[in-house]
C-alpha cells in the first residue's frame, strides 16, 4: 500500500498521473502486476502540512508499505526511479519529494482473510 501526502491544491491536479508514475515504477523495479495498485492520496490544507525549509508547496511525501524481502539494491533502484520519473513527467524536483519504504514481516500483513506468510498464490515475487 502506498500513501501520498501533499498540499491539496498541488496534489489533487496530479493524483492520477502520479499514481500512474508510481505504479509504473513498482512494475518495472519490483515486478508488481498491473492489477496490484493500492494507492491512497491524502490532500492536506496548507496549514496542516508542515515541511522542511527549502521546499516548495509541491513538496510531496510518498510512503511505501511492503512486505519485507526486497534487497537494499532493489529498494534503492525504486526510490531513484521514482525521483527520476516524477521529475521528468511532473517537473517536481527531487528536493520536493520525500520517499520512505516501510517494511513489515509477512505475518504482519493481512489480506483476503489470511496473513502474508500464509499466502501461496501471489503472482509476483517479494524476494527481489
Topology, pairings included?
Elements: E1 2-7, H1 8-11, H2 15-30, E2 39-44, E3 60-67, H3 72-90, E4 97-104, E5 110-111, E6 114-115
Helix pairs in contact: 2-3
Please give a handful of descriptors for the protein shown.
single chain; 128 residues; alpha/beta; Macrophage Migration Inhibitory Factor; four-stranded mixed sheet; two-stranded antiparallel ribbon; 3 helices; 25% strand; Tauto_MSAD; Tautomerase/MIF_sf; Tautomerase-like protein
Structure write-up:
By secondary structure, the chain is an alpha/beta fold. It has one domain (2-115): Macrophage Migration Inhibitory Factor (2-Layer Sandwich), CATH 3.30.429. The protein is 30% helix and 25% strand. The chain contains 3 helices and 6 strands, in the order E-H-H-E-E-H-E-E-E. It has helices spanning 8-11, 15-30, 72-90, and strands at residues 2-7, 39-44, 60-67, 97-104, 110-111, 114-115. The strands form 2 sheets. The chain has a 4-stranded mixed β-sheet. A two-stranded antiparallel sheet has the order 5-6. A hairpin with a 2-residue loop joins strand 5 (110-111) and strand 6. Helix 2 (15-30) packs antiparallel against helix 3. The longest helix has 19 residues, at 72-90. The radius of gyration is 15 Å and the shape is globular. The mean pLDDT is 94.
